[in-house]
Amino acid sequence: MSSRYTVFFVSCALPLLLVSQIAPSMAHELDFWLLWVVAMTFVGLPILFAEIALSVRSGALPYQGIQKLTREADAKIIWRMFAGLSVFISLLFAVSITTRLGEGVHLHLPQLQLPLPSVGVSVLLAFVLLILSLLKSRLLPVGVALVVIGSLISLFDGGLDSGVSVPVMTAVSLGEWAKAVSLALICVGVGSGLYWFGNAPNVAKINPKKSLSGMILAIWLSQLVFGSFALLVSSSYVTPTSFAVSGIGMLLVAGFLVYYAGVQLMYRFGWINGAIATLVGLLVLSALPAKIVLITLIVIGMVAVVLLALFAGFAMKISHLRKTFNFKSEARYNLWRMFVRIFAPLAILVALVGWVLEWLR
Q: Can you tell me the mean pLDDT for 2-15?
């Protein structure tokens, strides 16, 4: 697979993997759809612009790139935490899949009669991911296709009883805003470094005289389309067939996520130590309860996004990103800077408060 399409496969895959965990059965609430579109437009899009621009400016993978950018901006090394958080998030992405499949095997495929508990299945699948990670991104498009097919089976197998209904207006709550922001950020991988990672090999091919807006909007639109599809699927019934097909696809996508984390750790600590760190981290996280993994993913994911937004909005020199964006008007750049500096961090902070209130119930 050409690396130029990696970012699009990532933007299509992650919503299908995570929406049903973060915002299950929300497709029937019209107000939630509206909140999600607002979050995608005014929170997710500005930060996606920031992440792609930083990747193009650095011309390197996240670990190397963030070091280069902090040196250019004469910024403190604390901003380099983003690279470490991105690795942790990618492992959490992968583990959220193994824990979900570990629980789902006993629920949806009881005929297998596996002698292992859910945690044991999750740890076993972690070893499978390590093997799949050796294939790098080669099976990523196959994984996305299988998840889409499994989702379609889930959506249509139930017929009129699929669980999907026409959305209606309901009462708006802080918890809904929290889930909408999570869908606009974590469920599409914004702030995780995955778009940075997938875009880095193609930086040399990007025309410096051309605006980045076209490429970024194309990625964002694919997030919007597959996010909408994932929301519909999250309200449908899971059948044994859809679970089996989607499960295989999820493992193939998760293998790419482990590959991403492994490459970063190997760059930071060397081949042997990086491989050991990947193995240990994946196995330890796979043994955790699914709820703990999900809560950790949400919190760490939002912290990484805020860190990225503040770095792009405050630490980076204005002239550097303005030149990278190559907007046709100064007003567009100033508008982006306002959103990434003020609105996005505040919106994420409110979302975190919403999540805390949800977890305390």
A: 82
The owner of tokens 């760190």 is 277
In the chain, where the domains are located: 3-360
Closest among 280, 264, 257, 341 to 82, alpha carbons compared:
264
CA–CA dist 146, 229 (Å, integer): 14
Q: Full-prediction pTM beyond 0.85?
A: yes
Phi first, then psi: give them for residue 360, nearest 5 degrees. Answer: -80, -10
Backbone angles phi, psi at 164, to 5 degrees: -90, 135
In the block, tokens 């250019």 appear at 72
Secondary-structure class of domain 3-360 per CATH: mainly alpha
Residues in the chain: 361
Q: Among candidates 191, 188, 185, 193, which has minimal Cα distance to 265?
A: 193
Residue 48 and residue 153: Cα distance in Å, rounded? 31
Residue 270 phi, psi (nearest 5): 95, 165
Higher pLDDT, 24 or 340: 340
107-153 pLDDT tens trace: 888 888 888 899 999 999 999 999 999 999 899 999 999 999 999 98
Residues 271/276/279/281 CA torsion (nearest 10 deg) = -110
Read out DSSP for 245-304?
Answer: HHHHHHHHHHHHHHHHHHHHHHHHH-HHHHHHHHHHHHHHHHTS-HHHHHHHHHHHHHHH
Query: 36: part of which helix (H) or strand (E)?
Result: helix 30-39
Distance CA 337, CA 315 (A): 12
Amino acid at 202: N
Residue 2 pLDDT greater than 80, yes or no: no
φ, ψ of residue 289 in degrees (nearest 5): -60, 150
